Each structure stands twice: as C-alpha cells, then as structure tokens.
Amino acid sequence: MKNNNLMEIPLKSSGENGIFNKYHWIKEADGKLISAKLLRECAINKQLEFDTLKAKKKIDGEKLTSKDVFEILNTKESANKSSVLILGYALELLLKSGVVSLLINAPKKLLEKKVRSYSHNLLNLVLDLHFPLSCKERDLLEVLSSYIIRETRYPVTPSTINDYCKQVNQITNFISSEAQFMMGVKLFERLRCFVSDIDGTEDNIKIHSRMEMEGNGYITFRVGGRLPPVFIIKFCQSQIDAEIANIETVKALIIEKNKVNKSIDSNLMEKNWGNAIFYIVDDTKGLISHCN
C-alpha cells in the first residue's frame, strides 16, 4: 500500500505502531524522564565534589585553582541545563501521547500534521487535552516551552553587556532550581496518570465512532475517559458547494438520522453535542479548533 493511502486510513485505538500508538509516545517520555533525573543526579554529585574539594583545600591551607572550579562547576551547569531540556521533552512527548487519543478514527495524516503544528508549545497541548494546571505549573510549562527552543540549546542574544549578564543569571538560576525541576517531575507523574485514564476507566468507559457523509465527508466522535466529548468533522464537497459547510448542518443531519434510524452512537452524538469540543478538517492546515 502506498504511503499516501496509508495516511488516509483512520487511526485505530489499538494495533498501531510508532507515532500512531499512544503507548510508544509514553515509552519515549518515560525514557526522557529517566535521562533527566540521571543528569540531575550528576549535577548534584558535582556540587558535592566541589564542596568536598573546597573543604579539603581549606584544611590543607590551599586555595582552589581556576582549573578546579571550572572543570567541576562547568560539568554541573551543563548537566543541569541538559536535565531541564530533556525534562521539557519528556513532558512534550507525554502530552502528545494524549493527542493520539484525541484523534481516534481520524485519518493518520491529521495526527502527523497536528503533532507538528504544536512544535514545542506545551501550553497549547495542555489546552487541547483540557488538563488542569495550577498557576505555578502553567508558568513552568511556559518557561520550559521557551527553554526547549532557545535557552538550553543556544547562547543568549544580548543587547548590552548588562543584558547579557542578566540573561545568563536568569538561566543559571532557573536550571539550578531543584524546586522547579521537582515541580516538573511531579507534573509529569500527574500527567502520566491523566494520560493512562484518557481512554477510559471502569467508571467512565470510552466510546468512539465514525459516521461517513456523502463523498469524502465524515464525522468522528469520542466520549468518555478524561477528555470531554470530541467531534472531528470533514465537510463533504456538496456541503462546501452549497455553502452550508458548518457544524449546524452536521447537527441537523444527526438529529434527522435519529428520527429515522437512531443508533447508540448517533444518540450519544446528539446527547453530547452541547458539551463537545469541535475540530474542522482543513486539507491544507489539518485540524482547526472550532468554538461551538
């Protein structure tokens, strides 16, 4: 089967691989968190090494050399900086695992486009998954989104010498903060529980379905788990030509179907319409969020 045709196949809730499998994203996220913790431990050990050497030199009546200080503290700073970068990646991968669940029954190409569209914007991912955050967690994700792109990867871009020193100090303070790092780890753990339950629990099972419209149009729907009801709508060409390509047209179709031949799925669609979130399929842009 050609790759283009493969990408048109609806995303299944099981039996998929790679980016189309939620658990493969989670596995990568878990691995990144392990790496971040190991780097953090390395930084802590380097600080202990520095403190021990400093105490020994003092007892011996000697002074630390610049070489001693640079080798130890440079390693510590590098480990701290990399731990923050990889923690950010871990959270990003975990959040994107939830997007797989969000797009069940949609064509695979939409998942690929949607994942790319987020880039490293962690807050946008959180908003789409309706994951609750405290103010401090929101601030942390906003900072990490920036650090993934710039601060932990490239030298600063200063306007003056004072600005250079200010930026470097801000970065050093943030990457060295155990409180910020541990907040990120705890957020990861809370998010992982959320993602595990996103596809339903014993008390709140997930139900998903897909309804074809004439031509190339369709409606996908899911309800249950940790997500609100979700509709993904691709208008058919006849609706576009008639200038009735809107969600009210789709709602009317579902209501009309239920009058004639109601099913469990179509009944749930109508029942959950008012509480749902909607995405419209755009052939160029992929998925576009629509306010009901």
Write the layout of secondary structure elements.
Blueprint lengths: L2 H6 L13 H38 L6 H37 L5 H11 L3 H8 L5 H15 L11 H16 L1 H20 L9 E6 L5 E7 L2 E8 L2 H5 L5 H15 L2 H9 L4 E6 L3 E5 L2
Parallel strand pairs: 3-4
Antiparallel strand pairs: 1-2, 2-3, 4-5
Core attributes:
5-stranded mixed sheet; elongated; alpha+beta; 292 residues; 11 helices; 11% strand
Explain briefly what this protein structure is.
The chain is α+β, with helices and mostly antiparallel strands. The protein has 11 helices and 5 strands, in the order ααααααααβββαααββ. Helix 3 (66-102) packs across helix 6 (135-149) and helix 3 (66-102) runs parallel beside helix 8.
Describe the model.
This protein has 292 residues and is of the alpha+beta class. The protein has 2 domains: 14-197, no CATH class; 207-290, no CATH class. The protein has helices at 3-8, 22-59, 66-102, 108-118, 122-129, 135-149, 161-176, 178-197, 237-241, 247-261, 264-272, and strands at residues 207-212, 218-224, 227-234, 277-282, 286-290. A 5-stranded mixed β-sheet has the order 1-2-3-4-5. A hairpin with a 5-residue loop joins strand 1 and strand 2. The longest helix is centred in the first third of the chain and has 38 residues, at 22-59. It starts with a helix and ends with a strand. The model has no long low-confidence stretch (mean pLDDT 92).
Structural class by helix and strand composition: alpha+beta
* Total count of domains: 2
Radius of gyration: 25 Å
Give average pLDDT, whole number: 92
Order of secondary-structure elements: HHHHHHHHEEEHHHEE
Biggest β-sheet: strands ordered side by side in the sheet: 1-2-3-4-5
Helical segment tally? 11
- Strand percent estimate: 5-15%
Q: List segments where confidence is low: pLDDT < 50 over at least 5 consecutive residues.
A: none
How far is the first residue's CA from the last residue's CA?
A: 38 Å
- Largest beta-sheet characterization: 5 strands, mixed
Multimerization state: single chain
Shape: elongated
- Count of DSSP strands: 5
Helical content stands at: 55-70%
